Amino acid sequence: MSIDVVTNLAELVDEFALLREQIKELEQKQEELRYRLISSGLRLLVGNKFVATLSESARKNTDWKKVRETANIPQSVIDEFTKVSQVISINCTAKE
Q: For the chain, which residues score pLDDT lower than 50?
């Protein structure tokens, strides 16, 4: 691998990690703003450029582990309907 490629990859790593940090900060800010909008108690909020409509709905979550345990479903049946896929994760940490 040439020095140019390594340098370019180093720059990509730094850019990738910085972007992730920015996204994390933006997501935090989004959650804070979301909380403030919900706390207003209003369902229609009008800004200068956007309109926000708050709606409420029920969400169902099934604890499939407990269903399996309660119904005594064998692991082989679970395996038959379990889809496995390969994923690649990238973790970034600051250099010391």
A: none
